[in-house]
Amino acid sequence: MRTRGPLLAALLLAAPVLAGAAGPAWISDDWPRALAEAKARQVPVFVDAWAPW
Q1: Is 53 part of any domain?
Q2: Which of 2, 4, 26, 27 could form a disulfide linkage to 34, CB 3.0–4.6 angstroms apart?
Q3: d(Cα 37, Cα 30) in Å, to the nearest integer?
Q4: Domain for residue 35, yes or no?
């Protein structure tokens, strides 16, 4: 029973790759386009922000 946990975790992590799922569509410096695409696909918007300090 203990050997099933890591195997199940590996399968769950590999499922998108095995299914051929594409990663997120990154849109840089175009907020109106990103918002329009997210609304059209009914998905949330992920905003990645950072500062060099």
Answers
A1: yes
A2: 27
A3: 11
A4: yes
Alpha-carbon distance of 38 to 34, in angstroms, equals 6
Q: What's the total number of domains in the chain?
A: 1
pLDDT tens-digit readout, 1-53: 566 778 777 777 776 666 666 667 788 889 999 999 999 989 889 888 889 98
What pLDDT is stored for residue 40 in this prediction?
A: 93
* Residue in this structure with the two tokens 């199940």, named with its chain if needed: 8
Q: Which domain holds residue 35?
A: 23-53
Distances (CA, A) of 27 to 20, 30, 40: 21, 7, 15
Q: Which two tokens stand for residue 39?
A: 């609304």
CA distance 10 to 4: 10
Helix, strand, coil shares of the chain as percentages rounded to 5?
A: 50, 0, 50
